[in-house]
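chain below, 197 aa
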Amino acid sequence: MTGKDIVKIALNLVVVYLIGGLILAVVYAKTAPIMYRNAENAKQQALRALIPEADAITKMGDWTIHDKHAEYYVAKKGGVPIGYIIQSFGKGYSSYINTLVAVDKDFTVQKINILSHAETPGLGDEIEADSFKNQFKGKDLDHLKVLKTDTTEYIQAISGATISSRAVSEDAVKNGVSRLIKAIKEGGADSGAGKHS
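prediction:
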């Protein structure tokens, strides 16, 4: 193989890579707005599922939890606040657990939803089960504590997944509600309180 052959092969590879890169750029430019719109629609559906009786759910502000961007919202019916939705993160066994939490005007939890996580299949991923999530309804800050024994007053840990249970209950939900209370008291429920770290 001569030097001329090596240059020819190298030029051919450069051309192939440039064409491939151009095709990827065009595809991304076409699909990025669609993916963004779909993500926004999915987020709105997730928010509405938490407080379905609300006429409007609007973003109040941003905050950072475990170095991850999160948001909080006010839910209104007839222009009057009826509750809030918090996005929060809990540090689990093998991932950060992205969680949405709906609370009423008194900051009592009404419902939670796990958006994403990478907890252990068959153990930690039980945080997605209704039997675990339904325990949160009606709990205030003082009752967002995980116990390994049978309980209805607090949150019962998932057998073999106490770390994941605590990540949701005491980290994501309890800390999220605490941050919301602080944001509302600092800025008022309708002020759109700014970024909190």
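The helical segments are 3-50, 130-133, 162-187. The chain has a mean pLDDT of 90.
thats it, cya
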